[in-house]
Design brief:
single chain; alpha/beta; two-stranded antiparallel ribbon; 5 helices
Length: 203
């Protein structure tokens, strides 16, 4: 029996979701967080439940910062091309599955920021090349939060804040466990960065 292991780092030491070990072998078994599923749809549904559980625990912040923010992430095609660590010759179906896992995980960050009510308005932008897009739209928003994806081992969240739009990395507290505590820590890092820069929305 031959089995292909694909190990993903959703964000390089910078994010709270557990690192996934995904396998596909005899019988086309898909593994998500230690559980086996017979189809990508079943595994993706398990991830959806997992993300919804985290989202249900995120409450609006008392100190709203206001203004507008954009969350920029790669497209599905870019996640498959740059975010999947391929060992051997995995089937395209497995690469597509992992791409969908990554899209769901990263787009959820937009949902969490919006639910946290840090800003007055949050916009999600998906593009094959996030960095050029960030440079293009930077003056249209008070804050831009984006994922810089280079490879499975090189992926990092950053944010840029008006008026000088200095680049600041976003991380979570490594002493906290994954899931809700780690996610909340990541959101608090956004809030702390805003306070440290003396953030004032332009309008």
């Amino acid at each position: 029996m031959q089995m292909t292991n694909v190990k993903l780092r959703l964000f390089k030491l910078s994010f709270c979701f557990v690192v996934l070990l995904l396998m596909m072998g005899c019988g086309n078994t898909y593994k998500y967080k230690g559980q086996n599923f017979h189809s990508p749809e079943e595994a993706l549904n398990a991830q959806k439940i997992d993300l919804c559980d985290i989202k249900s625990q995120i409450t609006p912040i008392q100190k709203k910062r206001g203004g507008t923010a954009a969350v920029v992430i790669p497209t599905f095609e870019t996640f498959v091309a740059l975010g999947v660590k391929k060992t051997g010759n995995p089937k395209q179906e497995l690469s597509d599955y992992i791409g969908k896992i990554l899209v769901a995980s990263n787009s959820t960050m937009y949902d969490l920021i919006d639910q946290r009510k840090i800003f007055d308005k949050v916009t999600l932008i998906e593009d094959n090349y996030p960095i050029p897009v960030v440079k293009k739209i930077i003056a249209e928003y008070d804050v831009v939060i984006y994922l810089d994806l280079v490879s499975p081992e090189q992926a990092q969240w950053f944010m840029r804040v008006t008026p000088d739009y200095k680049i600041m990395p976003l991380n979570s507290d490594k002493s906290k466990v994954v899931r809700y505590p780690g996610t909340l820590s990541w959101l608090e890092n956004i809030e702390n960065n805003l306070d440290e820069t003396g953030y004032m929305p332009r309008r």
